[in-house]
Design a protein that fits this description.
The complex is a heterodimer. In chain A, 30% of the residues lie in helices and 24% in strands. By secondary structure, chain A is α+β, with helices and mostly antiparallel strands. In chain A, a hairpin with a 5-residue loop joins strand 1 (2-8) and strand 2. The radius of gyration of chain A is 14 Å and the shape is globular. Chain B is globular. The longest helix of chain B has 23 residues, at 6-28. By secondary structure, chain B is α+β, with helices and mostly antiparallel strands. In chain B, the strands form 4 sheets. In chain B, strands 16, 17, 18, 19, 20 and 21 form a 6-stranded mixed β-sheet that branches. Chain B has a 5-stranded antiparallel β-sheet with strand order 1-2-5-4-13. In chain B, 38% of the residues lie in helices and 18% in strands. The chains are: A alpha+beta, B alpha+beta.
């Protein structure tokens, strides 16, 4: 399962594709079971150059109570820094944030691998 | 302190206006991200995990009160009310919006601040001994020479697209407080046999994936030839540095490949061909810059302050602060006061906007308007009267800035790590917080004595882990955070690269491992030995055994 993420150009905020728009909450992300549909959405996002920077697909998986990014880096992006729980998306609280904060699982993030490759 | 002149001010205003136009073109879609990225990076604007990060240059770590107040204003107005001082003595703001960046550069330019030379493959912002102008050890004020190099290197057309970034550090004391052996070029001012000022020139130090300590390539460089000699070093690097592989493009790789003698020979050859007079700084210009750093306003005071001595006698917390954070000044009756940004449980190097204002006020009232940033992520008030230290201590205490732990186990360097940085493999901040909490008892920390822990969240080594007495490197083991420990590193005059202790340990095992290492040290140490001295004498195995014993 995949979700589509990017940083918003104007303010750098982490956003997720909902199927119709871009949301700041991971909980609103549309989940792709089908790779072809996911890649088509990613290609379309890459053309939205006045809105987004570096859109890419992330792996997500079922966890207790819902779905969360598999990689720790992507969960951090969806939450905020662990040294400042009052900063970032986590500051708003809510069940979806709690679910992400308690999720486990490990994998390398495609976002970082792509970044290193491009350097 | 040196003030930017009309040329500098126009340059900063032009630069801010240019960036405003570039941002507008990016937002309108006239420019793609690939076109825009190198331009925003040249203005210190990175995109990190949660937002943009602005890296503001603090040339040679020296700030005036009005500049510190502007940093507080920017942090409060455009960020979340704090900033992070780095091992490069810069300030990073981690919650910046692209739409605000042009206004921020305008604000910074009003007080002569900017983000030039904080990114890209140019000569980066200079660093220098934070005790400059205040220590009796120095043979000259290294800020003068750092400022000379700043003026020469800013927008230098020949050195704007080097094979990789290029960092220069300057000191003028035998004791190295600028980590010159791990810089691309390290400059140490000293007096030669004829008592003339000259530079010892080290080239090819650096940390990162392939750490090197810089060898000396010239023992005595007459100071008047500084710029022509630097040009020769950079020309050899620009010509032969590897552009085919970013991991091998730093000058340290070239110096190691050629050998220091051959590299030095090529530099001398290039230098001989140089029309030195056309490059070296005219003495009139040097005198103008030197005048900008001339000491002013020191009073003739008794070397002993009754108020200071009384406070030490009656206030144990103050006595500890005086022992750990206060140092002797070159002028009798004055002191250097270290301001620790390592309060227990806080993020190393972080400073709130309110704290910045407190420090700016203290600098204005008690330290001739000057503040310094150290590469160990602390601040320093360089010129405080001993009589005033109790008042400074009281004001720092009220602002949570009086932690008396300079050079102790909780005075930890940590990069932002995976909590913020797009390149990181693992978090660094929570590891530092865990260790600091474990050694929170100030009496225990003082018993342990000098112990420098340095933590990086990836191999790029912004947290200087290779040169920590205990170095900690975050690694990614199939997506999980693990930490590799190294022992025996130092960034000072006894510079050394640490040795790997053994297999990386899980995040929750790092602080307990530090406990084991400290136990071994306390058991094995001899009279007067610091942790690193005991390590050097006793060797790695005794420490390794203690950490990995449970695994066997």
């Amino acid at each position: 399962m995949k979700a589509l993420t990017a940083n918003r150009l104007i303010d750098g905020e982490v956003v997720f594709w909902t199927g119709a728009d871009w949301s700041e909450r991971f909980a609103a992300a549309v989940l792709f079971d089908d790779n072809t549909a996911a890649e088509a959405a990613e290609a379309r996002a890459k053309s939205q150059i006045t809105l987004l920077v570096d859109p890419y697909l992330i792996d997500v998986a079922e966890v207790e109570g819902g779905v969360a990014p598999v990689s720790y880096r992507e969960r951090l992006r969806a939450l905020g820094p662990t040294n400042r729980p009052d900063h970032g998306k986590q500051a708003a609280g809510g069940a979806d944030i709690a679910l992400l904060a308690h999720a486990h699982g490990a994998a390398r993030s495609k976002g970082r691998v792509d970044l290193i490759r491009r350097k | 302190m040196y003030r930017y002149d009309e040329i500098d001010r126009e340059m900063l205003a032009d630069r801010a206006a240019e960036f405003r136009a570039q941002c507008a073109r990016r937002l309108s879609g006239e420019m793609t991200e690939d076109q825009f990225k190198p331009l925003r990076l040249m203005n210190g604007l990175y995109l990190q995990l949660h937002a943009y990060m602005l890296r503001i240059a603090i040339p040679y770590g020296a700030l005036r009160s009005d500049q510190m107040r502007m940093l507080a204003h920017v942090a409060r107005t455009y960020d979340q009310g704090y900033g992070h001082f780095t091992t490069r003595t810069n300030l990073q703001l981690h919650w910046i919006k692209l739409r605000d960046a042009p206004d921020i550069l305008d604000d910074l330019a009003k007080v002569g601040l900017h983000a030039i030379q904080t990114s890209g493959n140019c000569i980066r912002n200079l660093t220098a001994d934070p005790h400059a102008g205040a220590t009796a050890e120095e043979v000259d004020d290294p800020r003068i020479w750092a400022e000379v190099i700043r003026q020469w290197s800013t927008f230098h057309p020949e050195f704007t697209y080097l094979p990789r970034k290029f960092k220069i550090a300057v000191t003028a004391s035998p004791k190295d407080r600028a980590a010159i052996r791990v810089y691309d070029i390290g400059l140490r001012l000293h007096r030669d046999d004829e008592n003339a000022l000259s530079f010892e020139v080290l080239v090819g130090g650096g940390l990162g994936r392939l750490p090197h300590l810089g060898p000396v390539i010239r023992q005595r460089l007459p100071v008047r030839h500084l710029l022509s000699y630097l040009q020769a070093v950079l020309r050899v690097y620009n010509r032969h540095g590897r552009r085919d592989n970013p991991n091998k493009a730093r000058i340290k790789i070239l110096v190691a490949a050629l050998g220091p003698e051959e590299f030095a020979r090529q530099v001398e050859e290039e230098w001989e061909l140089t029309d030195k007079a056309s490059v070296d700084l005219p003495s009139t210009e040097l005198a103008r810059i030197r005048a900008g750093f001339a000491p002013t306003g020191f009073e003739t005071l008794s070397p002993v302050s009754t108020a200071f001595e009384a406070a030490k006698t009656f206030d144990r917390a103050f006595a500890r602060f005086a022992r750990r954070n206060v140092l002797t000044h070159k002028v009798p009756g004055y002191a250097l006061v270290n301001v620790s940004l390592k309060a227990i449980g806080e993020t190393p190097g972080d400073c709130s906007a309110d704290q910045m204002d407190v420090i700016a006020d203290l600098a204005e009232r008690y330290s001739m308007n000057e503040v310094r940033v150290t590469y160990e992520q602390n601040l320093l008030l360089p010129h405080v009267k001993l009589d005033d230290v109790p008042a400074v201590h009281a004001a720092l205490s009220a602002a949570g800035l009086a932690t008396a732990n300079i050079n102790l186990i909780s005075d930890i360097i940590a990069c932002p790590g995976l909590d913020y940085c797009a390149l990181a493999n693992a978090r660094a901040i929570p590891i530092a917080q865990d260790i600091a909490r474990r050694f929170e008892d100030p009496a225990l920390a003082e018993t342990i004595g000098e112990l420098k822990i340095k933590i990086s969240g990836c191999i790029n080594a912004c947290g200087h882990h290779h040169v920590g007495h205990i170095g900690i490197l975050g690694v990614d083991k199939k997506g999980e955070e693990f930490y590799q420990l190294t022992l025996g590193g130092s960034a000072e005059d006894d510079a050394a690269l640490g040795q790997v202790l053994g297999p990386a340990v899980a995040a929750d095992k790092v602080a307990p491992s530090i406990d084991r290492l400290v136990e071994v040290y306390l058991r094995e140490r001899r009279q007067g030995e610091r942790f690193i001295d005991t390590f050097r004498r006793a060797g790695l195995p005794v420490f390794k055994e203690a950490v990995y014993a449970e695994a066997h």
